[in-house]
Amino acid sequence: MTCEKFEQVKTFESGNEMAAMAAAQINYHLMGYFPITPSTEVAQYLDAMKTRGEHEIQLIAADGEHGSAGICYGAAVAGARVINATSANGLLYMIEQLPVQSGTRFPMVMNLVTRSVSGPLDIRGDHSDLYYALNTGWVILTASTPQAVYDMNIMALKIAENAKVRLPVIVAYDGFFTSHQKRVVYHFKEREVVQNFVGKTPPQGYPNASNPTKPVTIGGHMNGDDLLNNHYQQSEAMYHAHEVFQEVAKQYEEISGRKYEVLDLYQMEDAEYALFLLNSAAESAKDIVDQLRQQGIKAGVIRPNLIRPFPQKEIRTALKNVKGLLVGERADSYGAHGANLTSEVKAALQDDKENQTIVLSRVFGLGGKDFYPEDAKAFFDLVIEAVELGYAKQPFDYYGRVPGKKTIVTENVFPVQSGVYNSGLIQVTPDEKTGQLKVKLPPLRTLTEKPKRLAPGHGACPGCGIMPALELFFKGIEGDIVVLFQTGCAYVVTTAYPYSSHKQTMIHNLFQNGAATLSGTLEAFLEMKRRGEIEVSDDLTFVMVTGDGGMDIGMGAAIGTALRNHKLILLEYDNEGYMNTGSQMSYSTPLGHMTSTTGVGKAQQGKTFQHKDTVQIFAATHIPYVFTGTEAFPQDLLKKAAKAQWYAQNVGMVYGKLLITCPLNWKTPDEIGTEVVRTAVDSNFFPLYEIENGITNLTYIPEEKGKNVPVTEWLKLMGKAKHLLKPENAHLLMEFETEVNRRYEKIKAKHEHPLL
C-alpha cells in the first residue's frame, strides 16, 4: 500500500540498500563504521552515493567496531545526527560502548544486520548477536522486509529524538535473508518529505558538547543512589518508547500509507495454534497458516516490530484464546531452558492468570540455516500435538539438529608431517663484530624439497598472493610451527569445516585479539615445558599470520604483544584492504586508491589519506627484528625468514610485512602478480629493508641495480589506482609521489647513517 499524498518510487532493492537510502535521505551528519559481513554494504552504498553527490554524510572508517562506536558517541554528544551499521562480533566488540550511549541518553540509529556470533566462525544470519543487545538500554525495532528496513530507519530517528525517549535505537534485520535479497520496495522520491517527517536537528533544549557558551559535563561519575535514579529514568524512557513508537508509526502511515503495529498479527483474530517468530522467518510461516486454515485449523503467526521495550500487553491480548504457542528463536540463552524471548513471552503470560496457553520453545536456523514453509509446518505440528496431549512432551529443544555418527571420521589426506621441516641447509650465525645475523642459504631448488605447510585444495582466488608468499616465508623456517591465523582471507579459504589445509597446528581468533592469543599460547607452552609437563622439540616456532586490515582493528593487541616482547613472529600479508569482506578501505590502503568504501566519482577520488606505515610503528616498540619482503625477491625473503626465526627463538618478538597481490580487488590480471609487487619495490612504494636491533638496512636498492622506476609505473598496473594518472588528479598523484619518496629517503638515510 502506498500513499498518494507524497510521490513514492517503486524499486527492487535489498535491505542494506534501503538502509542506506533512508540514511542518505535523512542526510545524517556522520557515520562511524567498520566493515563486517553482512552489514558492510550499508557503508559501501552510502560511499557510492556520496561519490555521486547524493548526500553529505561524513563517513569515518574506524580502526575497529569499538572505535566506530566511540566515533558515533562522540558525534552524538556534539548534538549531531549519527548512524552506524554492524553485525555479530562487531556488535560484541563495541558492546562496552552501547550502555554508555544509552545511559547518557544520546540518540542515534544503528542498523544491526543480524549474524551468527563466533566461535566457530559463521558469517550467515541468525539472532545470536541481537540477543546480546537486549540489555544495552537501546530501543530495538525488528524489520522483516527491505520495505520495513527503509521505513523503520526513518521512524527510528524520530523515536530516538523524542523528548520522552532520548535513547539510541537499533533497527535489526536478518543478515542475507533481508540484507541481500531484493524485493519490491517503495521510497519517497523527494528527500524533503523524509527530512520534514523526522524534523529539525538537534531537538530544542537538548544539551550537547558543541556550544561553548553553555558548557555541560557529560558522563560524570555517580554514586549508588544517583546511578539508581539514572537507571530508573532510563527505564522509564524505554517504556515511553512503546507509546512513542505507536505515535510515530501512525504519523508515518499518514505520509507513506504503510502501517506498523507493535505486533504484526497474521490470522490471529481467532487463532488456537500460533507461532511467535522474529523477522523473515515469520514471512515464510504465513503460507502454512493459509494452508492450515483451508484445512479448518485455526493457525496464526505473531511477529513483533518492537522487542525493546518488550510488548507484554499486546502479547497477552494476542494469546488470550490461543491453546498452544511455539516460540522459534535463531539464538539460545544457554542453560535457561529456552532462549530470551521465550522467557519473556512466558513472563508476560504470568500476569494473565486466566491464560492457559501451552508454550514450546525451539532454537532454529543458527548460522543462516534456511527456514522453509515445511519447517513452519513442523512447528505447527508440535503445537497441535502438545494441545492434544495437554502438555508439551519436550518444552525446549533445538530444531533441525542432526546426531553425529561415530562411524564417520575425517581422515588426513596427507600424513602427519611433524619433524620433516628441518632441512639443516639454512645456517644462521651472529656476526661477532656487529652482532647482526648472517644467513647462508642453499640453492633455492634444494629448498623446494621441504614439504609445504599448506595442503592444496584451499579456496583462494586465482592469482592470490597470500599462499605463495606464506609458503616461501615458511621455506625459511626450520622445524615445526604453531601458527595462529586471524580472521581474513588466508584463514577463511583454508579452514572450511570439516576440512583444513593446515598440515601443522593452526589456531584461529578474531581480528582484534590474535597477537594476545598467541602470546598466551606461547607462554603457556614455555611454562609447561619448564615444569616438565610436556615433551616437544626445542625448535618449535610460534607464528601469527594477519592481513585484510588485521593490523588496524588488531593493532592494540599487537602493540601490547610487542612491548612485552614475546618470542613469536607476527607476519602481516598486506593486500591493502579488507579483502575478505569485499575490498573495503583499510588504513594500509594507499592515498587515492579505490575500494568499495572509497569510491571514485565526481565528488571524491578514492581514499583521502596516506597509508599506515606499520613497519615503522613496530620499529618504535624496539623489538629486535622488523622486516619487509615479497615473493618477487625470494632469496631476500628467505634470509629474513631465517633471521625472524632466530630472533623469535632467542631474543623476542619479530614483525614482518609481506606485500601480496589481490588481483580481484586490485583489478590486475591474475598472472602478473610477481610483476606488480616487483614494480612496487622498484618504484620505492614498498622498499625492502630490515631493522635489526635498531639498525636499519636496505636489503635492495633499486637505483643501485638500475631498476628504479617512477611510482606511476606501478600505478599503471593497479586497476584500482589508474584514475590517479588522469590530469584532473595531478594534485593527488603529486601528494602520493611526494609521500612515497619522503618515506623512502628517510629509510635510505637511516641505512646510510646507522645511528639514526
Question: What this model shows, in words?
Answer:
- With 756 residues, this protein is α/β, with parallel strands linked by helices.
- Helices cover 37% and strands 16% of the residues.
- It has an 8-stranded mixed sheet, with helices on both faces. The protein has a 7-stranded mixed sheet with strand order 3-2-4-5-7-6-12, with helices on both faces.
- The longest helix is centred in the N-terminal third of the chain and has 33 residues, at 224-256.
- The radius of gyration is 29 Å and the shape is globular.
Short descriptors:
single chain, 756 residues, alpha/beta, 26 helices, 16% strand
The major pleated sheet works out as: 8 strands, mixed
Number of helices: 26
Tell the overall outline.
Answer: globular
Mean pLDDT across all amino acids: 94
Give the helix proportion (percent range): 25-40%
Low-confidence sequence ranges: none
Give the termini distance in whole angstroms: 71 Å
* Structure classification: alpha/beta
Strand order of the largest sheet: 19-18-20-21-23-22-24-25
Q: Over the alpha carbons, how many angstroms does the gyration radius reach?
A: 29 Å
Q: Into which percentage range does the β-strand content fall?
A: 15-25%
Oligomer: single chain
How many individual β-strands?
A: 25
